[in-house]
Specification:
The chain has about 160 residues and is α+β, with helices and mostly antiparallel strands. Helix content is about 15%, strand content about 35%. It has two helices and eight strands, in the order H-E-E-E-E-E-E-E-H-E. The protein has helices spanning about 10-20, 135-150; strands at about 25, 35-45, 50-60, 65-70, 85-90, 100-105, 110-115, 160. The chain has an eight-stranded antiparallel beta sheet. The radius of gyration is 16 Å and the shape is globular. It starts with 9 loop residues before the first helix and ends with a strand.
Length: about 160
């Protein structure tokens, strides 16, 4: 991977340029999501400016998925200590609410969150459209997961962490 002056890879800088703004940039996101492994890089702003995040979902086409997430190696100026992968699962069995559970071994934290009305694709208005085949649905699910992990802005929810 070639790096630019920002320290980010040229692939990430090119994706940002194509998207027109940092938060809309993605790498590796397919045009349509099908069941199976879904892996991509997207941008998330946790308050210190946008940062590239890698996420992988394993989805069987149903109402749940397992996932893993870590800072992307497309990001600049990372040390080995920058990586702290987290794993978990997400469920939207009732079609409306989102339930997340996760383990973050490097930080010694496990946790869960229940987000009423947080099911993936809930904002799509076209009833003929399959929300789970839409790439943006998965980007938003990734952003929700990271918001839970970093205690960012979320709609009213319940949750708990365990050390």
């Amino acid at each position: 991977m070639s790096r630019r002056a920002s320290g980010r890879t040229s692939e990430l800088e090119d994706a940002i340029a194509r998207a027109g703004d940092e938060l809309s940039a993605t790498l590796g996101l397919p045009e349509q999501i099908d069941p199976g492994d879904i892996k991509f890089t997207f941008m998330f702003d946790g308050g210190d400016g946008p940062q590239a995040e890698d996420i992988r979902f394993t989805w069987d086409g149903g109402c749940w998925t397992t996932w893993s997430q870590d800072i992307s190696d497309h990001e600049g100026n990372l040390s080995p200590a920058s990586s702290a992968p987290v794993w978990g699962w997400a469920s939207w069995r009732n079609g409306a609410d989102l339930l997340l559970a996760y383990t973050w071994p490097d930080l010694g934290v496990d946790g869960w969150a229940h987000i009423p009305g947080g099911a993936p694709g809930r904002d799509l208005t076209d009833e003929d459209q399959d929300a789970m085949s839409e790439p943006q649905t998965w980007v938003e699910l990734g952003r929700t997961i990271i918001s839970v992990l970093r205690e960012g802005e979320l709609p009213p929810h319940t949750g708990r962490t365990y050390d």
